[in-house]
Amino acid sequence: MNATNTAQAPTEESLENTFTSRDLRKAFGKFGTGVTVVTCQTPEGTPHGATVNAFTAVSLDPPLAQVTLIRGNKAGQYLEDSPFAINIMSVNQLDVCLNFAGKPMKGSPAWRCEDGIPVLEGNAATLECKPWRIYDGGDHLIVIGEVIALEVNDVEPLLFVSGKFREAGRFAQGAPWDASGDSLALGWFEGSTSFDAL
């Protein structure tokens, strides 16, 4: 007996009704991230920042990093032609993080500003960037910067999972490695200059 496959590819209309934006946000939230504050200067020279957890390392050569900003966010308007910093928040900077998410802290965050790039003090790490590309990302802007300076400090990062801030816990089992499995320098292809077809 021959079975006939009667399944049809889902239409765009049927896909739209399978989940809500809240469902999608909940699914995205299961991917644990760090927390960053993107800082830059306004055209008037005033430091400005926005809390962002959509951060991605893009490339080592050239050194590129990406943040994704809600369309209409003031920071997105300033980044197109101006240098900026990606401040990777430390576990001690929750009040700073909330400050740039719209919940003002007592006092003012500690800044330093060199070469027109405002940088927060006390970060787990800081990437100073010059603009590289900005892409359309639906209701967000995808901003890629070329890293021109960095600083790494020996403090734990602040984490964000399922809509809540977290601290790093115990290590999971398994051996960490310094690069992904397909890294040309450290991965599966190390030392291979040619491949034989199977």
Lay out the secondary structure.
Elements (H helix, E strand, L loop, with lengths): L11 H5 L4 H9 L3 E2 L1 E6 L5 E6 L2 E6 L2 E8 L3 H5 L5 E5 L5 H6 L11 E4 L2 E4 L4 E13 L2 E13 L6 E3 L2 E3 L32
Antiparallel strand pairs: 1-11, 2-3, 2-6, 4-5, 5-10, 6-9, 7-8, 9-10, 11-12
Give the overall pLDDT as a whole number: 80
| Main sheet strand line-up | 3-2-6-9-10-5-4
Q: What is the distance, rounded to the nearest whole angstrom, between the alpha carbons of the first and last residues?
A: 36 Å
Oligomer: single chain
Instruction: Quickly give the structural class.
Output: mainly beta
What spatial form do the alpha-carbon principal axes imply?
Answer: globular
Q: Quick one: biggest sheet?
A: 7 strands, antiparallel
Order of helices and strands: HHEEEEEHEHEEEEEE
Q: Low-confidence stretches at least 5 residues in length (pLDDT < 50)? A: 1-7
Helix tally equals 4
| Helical content (DSSP H or I, runs of 4+) | 10-25%
Radius of gyration computed on alpha carbons: 21 Å
Number of strands: 12
Strand content: 35-45%
